[in-house]
Design a protein that fits this description.
The chain is of the alpha+beta class. It contains ten helices and 17 strands. 26% of the residues lie in helices and 21% in strands. The chain has a five-stranded mixed β-barrel with strand order 3-4-5-7-6. Strands 8-2-12-11 form a four-stranded mixed sheet, with no helix packed on it. The chain is globular.
Length: 426
């Protein structure tokens, strides 16, 4: 539902002014053109998945950049609150109206813009996603994998009920630690009427395998294995299809189809670009991982809020790989990442994924670029010091004890060492 809710929030136009436009944009480059590209067939969608951009070089990100996050220029005014100062916002809509169980609500800024925030009440059993989502999105950004940016903010909720999720209780001005995720303007690509179709991990795996042997297939396999291994490190097990997105980052060829509203049964009037059979609507598809709140813990079948989300004890208890199985003489054993996926994610979510050597080496190279200062910036931005947990960890290899953010940094480096010390089959 997250994709649909955010798409509905976009202001869209149906004006067609050019045969080739930036995907999702009108000719002026500012107004969104379409929200959805309806691919002609499931087979064509698999072709888009197979060739979609999985990794892009993020450049040399400084610790300061990782702490601040990607530049925020969406007109919300929230860039003024990224220094931790309370951001005033008037309560508008309880979270239960939007679906899902994560504590959230809508509020209106002084600029008149309604924004969606996830929050925690600060209790021991509060919403850990406001910490985990920031850290996970910054890690993926630093590694070069696409994930929607998440910004940590302190919300000063005016006219706020005691229960912002339910909308019940006395009205008062209430402060909350929260996170803000801007609306994405890139159109999603689907082959059916559900705009939150997303993609399954096993589906992308099969799409890459369907490519003819050669440079493209080898590159896509390397990047995808690296992404899967990054998911193991983060313990990202809550990976339902709608948690991933197939999008169009390149030009939308308006001569490849026509724009109509969605089918009546979809219960919305989103502008949809319907691709004609045999035509190619998007020249540059990409894949993104979104909603990374259930990370930095010990992923489980039920995604327990206390252990699967920003829990140092649970995170460090999960080795990166399963012990190597016996292999034939002279052969290198395969590597299996240790990852339990949630029941809601389904059978095609690639639990305990197989990681090839090229993907291991590629991710290891990216991880080695993260210094202690980079890691400190990530965990500081995530505000782990504001959690009520006991952040302490002892390195099992040298018995050195760490506390606070230092414990998270040392634990992350220990996971990198596990990747460095292992060799995987091709």
């Amino acid at each position: 539902m997250a994709v649909v809710a955010r798409l509905l929030a976009l202001v869209l136009t149906l004006t067609v002014m050019s045969p080739a436009l930036g995907a999702g944009q009108s000719a002026d480059g500012k107004t969104p053109q379409v929200a959805v590209i309806h691919i002609e067939s499931p087979a064509k969608r698999m072709q888009y998945l197979a060739t979609a951009q999985i990794w892009a070089d993020p450049g040399e990100l400084t610790p300061q950049a990782l702490f601040a996050g990607p530049p925020l220029e969406d007109g919300s005014g929230l860039e003024k609150a990224l220094d931790g100062h309370p951001f005033p916002c008037t309560f508008t809509t309880p979270g239960r109206v939007m679906g899902g169980n994560t504590p959230k609500f809508l509020c209106t800024t002084d600029a008149g813009q309604t924004i969606r925030v996830k929050y925690t009440d600060g209790s021991k059993n509060g919403n850990r996603e406001v910490f985990a989502a920031v850290a996970a999105s910054r890690v993926l950004w630093a590694l070069g994998f696409k994930s929607d940016p998440i910004y940590p903010i302190a919300i000063d909720c005016r006219d706020c009920p005691r229960g912002p999720m339910t909308g019940k209780g006395p009205i008062a001005q209430r402060p909350y630690l929260a996170i803000y995720q801007p609306q994405f303007t890139q159109p999603v690509m689907v082959d059916r009427s559900e705009q939150n179709q997303g993609w399954k991990w096993a589906e992308l795996d099969r799409a890459i395998d369907s490519l003819p042997e050669g440079e493209l297939r080898a590159r896509q396999r390397q990047y995808f294995d690296a992404l899967m291994l990054a998911g193991v490190i983060l313990q990202h097990g809550d990976r339902k299809p709608e948690q991933q997105r197939l999008g169009c980052r390149g030009l939308l060829n308006l001569e490849a189809g026509d724009i109509r509203t969605a089918e009546p049964r979809s219960n919305n009037d989103l502008p949809v670009f319907f691709e004609r059979p045999g035509a190619t609507a998007c020249d540059s598809p990409d894949v993104a991982v979104q909603d990374m709140g259930a990370t930095f813990g010990g992923a489980g079948r039920r995604t327990n809020a206390a252990t699967a989300k920003m829990n140092l004890r649970s995170w460090t208890a999960r080795p990166v790989f399963y012990p190597a199985a016996k292999a034939a003489a002279g052969a290198v054993p395969e590597c299996r990442g240790q990852l339990t996926v949630s029941m809601a994610a389904g059978a095609e979510s690639l639990a305990n994924p197989r990681i090839g050597e090229a993907g291991r080496l590629f991710l290891l190279d990216r991880l080695r670029r993260l210094t202690d200062e980079h890691l400190r910036a990530i965990f500081t931005a995530a505000r782990v010091e504001k959690m009520t947990d006991d952040h302490s960890w002892r390195d099992p290899e040298n018995a050195t004890a760490y506390t606070g953010i230092d414990a998270w940094i040392a634990a992350a480096k220990y996971k990198v060492r596990q990747i460095d010390e292992r060799t995987c089959a091709p």
